Amino acid sequence: MSKLIEIDNDRLHSKNHVLFLFLDGVGLGNASAQYNPFMQVELPHLQALAGGYWLAERSRWSGERASFVPTDAGLGVAGKPQSATGQATLLTGQNIPQQLGYHWGPKPNAEIVHILQSDNLFMRLTRAGQTVRMANAYPQAYFDNIARGRRNYSAIPLALTAAGVPLPTTADLLAGTAFSADFTGQAWRAELGVPDAPLLTPQVAGVQLAKSAQQGGLLFFECWLTDYLGHRGTLSEAVQFLQVLDGVVAGLLEAWDDAHGLLVITADHGNLEDLSHKHHTENAVPTLLLGKHHAQFAQTVHDLADIASVVSQSLLELPSTN
To answer: CA 154 to CA 28: how far, in whole Å?
Structure first.
């Protein structure tokens, strides 16, 4: 049985808010269904959000509610984009691969750690009085391994902790105020041994993410399973998860507050869209914007370094049309 997030309805539509739905390792591939899971099955809500299929051949598009922008993840640096530099670029608005002269990942090296701990989007928003929250819950073993030095933070939790933003725990998941990385909670029961983890349908998870975001400020969700499946999954597993993601988007489309909220969906590099191999791609990535000033903001997006500004401006000021 799902646990729903209870929010005062009078507060739902009174604050500017952004939900940043980060898709790790999702690029725009070709139209061949042989290796591209996006072409294996109809994904009506993902397609509605983007005004068509998620393909490399697509150009910019803006509809009544949403905009789609093919977005450069290479950032002018040769080689395949990597997670640490791509995510650091998303979180700082700086072209990190260009500054370093290379792509790097998966975890931040010392140079990237210094950059993220010195300045990042989460720090800027909290200094400006905005609320920043992480949507994902982390199991206790994650915190234990960090404390023992057996694991290092990836770019996103590193930036959050540098900003003083707490990472949600198992208790938050059980309380219904944080979410499983698979959206539904099934993985917490089946793989992490938490039998009381709330179970959500994908659509209910999307509705609840929208309601949680409507509390105000920035809510960040890291969907790392897309990259995991690109590296280690089968085409069938990828298709099954994209159907879950499509259900989540159905809930978001149903519940999103267009007047006060901006939904930002983007990625750090390509991977899942081409399962002919188990490596990253050099493809552009999708950026999708739903809600408040989406078309104006879409005009400002060209590469990963443009995303942090969109988030900041949506919460703090009027959109730029430059």
So the answer is: 24
Angstrom distance (rounded) from CA 109 to CA 127: 26
- What tokens does 71 get? 């977005």
Which tokens sit at 303? Answer: 């590469």
Q: Helix, strand or coil for residue 290? A: strand
Report the distance separating Cα 219 and Cα 213, nearest Å: 6
Q: Are 314 and 297 in contact (CB under 8 A)?
A: yes
Query: pLDDT tens for residues 47-80?
Result: 999 999 999 999 999 999 999 999 999 999 999 9
Closest to 121 in 3D by CA, of 79, 165, 81:
165
302 and 280 in contact (C-beta within 8 Å)? no
Residue range 9-316 forms a domain whose CATH class is alpha beta
Within its chain, how far is the Cα of 73 from the centroid? 15
- pTM of the predicted structure, to 2 decimals: 0.94
Task: Please give the angle made by the CA atoms of 30, 39 and 228, to the nearest 5 degrees.
Answer: 85
